[in-house]
Every structure is written in structure tokens, then in C-alpha cells.
Amino acid sequence: MEQADTTASDCDLRTLRAVYGQMANVFHQQNLPHAEIEANRSYCNLSRLLGDSTGFILGYSNLIRPYYLLGDTNKVLDITHEAEQMSLSRADTMCAAWLNVAATYIYILRGQLTTAQQKIDYIREYSGIFDSQGNLRAGREMFYYTLGLFFENTHQLDSAEYYYRRLLLAHEYEAAYRGLLSVYEKREIADSIGKFARLYADANDAAHDKMSTQAVAQAAKNYQYTRQQQLAKSYEAKAKRRAYALCGFLVLILVLSYIIYKQRIKFHKKAIVLSYVREQYRQARNDYRKICEDNSTMKKRIQAMDVHVAYYSSDIIRRVTDSVFKINDVSAKELNDLYALFLSTFNDFKSFADNKGGLTENEWEVCIYVDLGFHDKDISNLMGITVQRVYGLKKQLNRKLFHSNEVTTLARNLRIALHPSNET
Fold first, then answer.
1. Each residue's pLDDT tens digit, 107-154
2. How far apart are the first and last CA of the chain?
3. Which of these, 149, 138, 143, lies nearest to 122 by C-alpha position?
């Protein structure tokens, strides 16, 4: 898609723009702000080519998210101001108002409370994110945290507590407990500080574990596979074009050689011309054969990737992952099925391990769980052994398979051994 010619008459700009918009959302979910910025800028450029000012404002305002993730608050405020002015020029007051949600939070953190108050009033009046009873609409509840933070910084702790507790009703536990902990610290109520400190820590750990094990590990594998597959198909297409070009070049060489032969025959140089033609023909055939071999190798890599993705997307993988988060229980039979599926999927790795002296059943289980991105505590729960025993097995594995005494390099070493084509 990076090679798309947007000046061509047959280029579907609207479809291309929609693809960039979807890419920006995917990059945002995977916490890739730099890639999200590039996708949103492409969305804006295509909107400009289409003459769609509404689409341009949408794409431009979406730059607020990645720049906020990067901590560039000055850039966030600049984009907010520019997008707000563009919306007001089109008499779109509602859009102009809700664009200030992130900016309001930044003004509070900077201590610019007068400006923050103005923005809050502006958002209440025109953004449409509040219903007729003054409650935030579904999907907008995190603005309760901004309201709570404002009242906390203006020393109106009862109002701050009210808005923080509204977050509990929206199931935004991490933000709610963080805010309530801050309120009770200012009130210096020890029992409540201890209570909400524990609740905040638990909510924070739950959110972090879910993101690190499920979202990041699985999404990163899927994204890496998709990108590798796209590149492989691109390389395959290039190889075909090169093969056609070489065939044409071969024909051209033969024609030119024949003409040269006819001319040189008058001067008794037939042998030299024929030798030249044969050498060029041999070289062209060798080049063509090499391209065909490269093409075959690329197809085998794609097939191997398909097998690996089928493994990571299987129902047994999903059930074992869910069991880590206490969503369901996994039976001994399912763990045996997982073991069998792993060995059948990674035959080359099994041969590699056998050549190193073979692995015990516990060592195979640790290999499987480390590859899935599980923490030592999760592995110990699944295997029914201590965390110290898990640590020892990982160190033993790294030494046996990769001649390393460091535990921290085991995950990377396994990834290279299991997916060698992704590391080239």
C-alpha cells in the first residue's frame, strides 16, 4: 500500500483512505504511536485530495491520541486549537467542544485551573457528551476523572469524590481508585488510604497483566504475521516481474545474437559469436532458475507462517490463555492436547531439542508457556509447582538448548528457534 500511486486515474482514494483509518485504529490499540501518526497523516492527505474537509478535520484531530501517548502535550494543545478553529469555521460547535477533552486534562495538570474551568463549561454546554440530566453518555465516562481531578485541585474534595465514584459505576476501576486514594490522602484518613491503596494496586495489576499477556503478546504475533505475509506476497510479485523481464531479455539476447552472427559470418567470426550467445544464454537461464528457487523458498515461508498462526489461533491456546485470567479452568486432557499440538506444529524444534539430549515433560511444558508469553507465576499455577522451580527449569532449558546460563534470554532464544524465518 505504501507503493500506491494516488495520482493514477484508477486509484480508489476513498477505499485507500478507509484502509489508512483502520490502520490508525489498529496501531492505537497496539500502542504504536509513531505508526499511528503516519497512518493518520496519510488519512489527512487523502481527505485533502478528495476535497473532504470533514474527513480532514477527523484525521487531524485523531493525531491528539498518539501525541498524548508520546507525552508531547504542547503538540496536543496545538492540534486541539487548530482542529477547533477548523470546526468553528464550519459552524460545527459540537465537534469544536469535544475536541477539548484531552486539552482540559492537560490544563489541570499544568495548574491552569481558570482555563480548565472555561473548557469544562464549554464542553458541558456544546459537546453533546452529557445527557439532559447532566450525566456523561456511554463511552464518555472517563471525563468523570477529569472533572474529579479539577475539583480535587480546587480543594472541593466532596465534589471530587462524587465524580471519582461515578467511575465505579462505569467499571473504570483503576482510574476511580486512583482518584479516591488521592482524595483520602488529602483528608488524611488512614483506614481509607489503606483500603483504596490496595484496591488501586489490584486494579492496576489486573490491567497491566491483561495488556502484557493477552493484548500485547497475541496482537504483536498477529501483526507480525500479517506484515510478514504482506511483504512475502510483495516479494513474490517482484520475483515474477523479474522472471518475465529476464525472459524478455533472453529473447532479446537471442535475436541480437542472431543478427550479430549474420554480420560476423562475413568475417569468419562465427565461433566467437556462438560462444558469446551460449554464455549469455547460460547466464540468463541461471538467473531465471535462481529466481524460481527464491520464489519457491518464499512460498514455503508463507506456508510455515500459516501453520504457526493456526497454532496460536487454536481453541486450545485460547482456553489455556483464558485460564490464566481465571476465565475458565483447563483440564489435564486439554494440557496434553496442547503438548501434542505444539510438537506436531514445531517438528523442526523437536528434532533440534532431541539433538541436544531431549527434554523432560516439565521442560517441554515450560517451553510452551514461555513461548505464549506467560509470567513465572502463571506457569507455576498451571504446572502446580513453585515459582522458584519454574525459574530453575527456565535456566536449565537455556543452558541445555542454547548454552546460556541467563534466564532472561530464554524467551528470545526460543522465539528465534521456533520462528527462524521471522528473524531473517
1. 999 999 999 999 999 999 998 999 988 899 998 999 999 999 999 999
2. 22
3. 143
Distance CA 388, CA 26 (A): 38
pLDDT average, residue stretch 30-57: 91
Of the residues 310, 338, 358, the one at which a domain ends:
310
CATH number, domain at 365?
1.10.10
The string of DSSP letters for 315-375 reads HHHHHHHHHHTTSS---HHHHHHHHHHHHHH-HHHHHHHHHTT---HHHHHHHHHHHTT--
244 three-state secondary structure: helix
Please, are residues 303 and 297 in contact by the beta-carbon 8 Å criterion? no
Question: DSSP character for 99?
Answer: T
Q: Is residue 421, in this structure, part of any structural domain at all?
A: yes
Domain range enclosing 374: 346-424
Cell 501453520 sits on residue: 307
What pLDDT does 256 receive? Answer: 86
Q: What percentage of the chain has pLDDT greater than the value 90?
A: 46
Do 370 and 394 contact (CB within 8 A), yes or no? yes
User: How far is residue 38 from each of residues 16, 67, 230, measured CA to CA in Å?
Assistant: 14, 12, 18
- CA–CA separation, 1 vs 231, rounded Å? 11
Q: Answer whether residue 271 shows pLDDT above 90.
A: no
CB atoms near residue 362 (< 10 Å): 15
* Nearest partner of 422 among 274, 294, 305, judged by Cα: 305
Instruction: Provide the pLDDT confidence category of residue 187 given band limits of 50, 70 and 90.
Output: very high
Which of 62 and 217 is assigned the larger pLDDT?
62
Cell of 12: 480508489
Question: How many angstroms separate the CA atoms of 411 and 370, rounded?
Answer: 6
Q: Virtual CA dihedral for 290, 296, 300, 305, nearest 10 degrees?
A: 90
Please give the tally of structural domains in the chain.
2
Contacts of 138 (CB under 8 A, 6+ apart): none
Report CA Rg, the chain. Answer: 31
**Same-domain pairing of 227 and 292:** yes
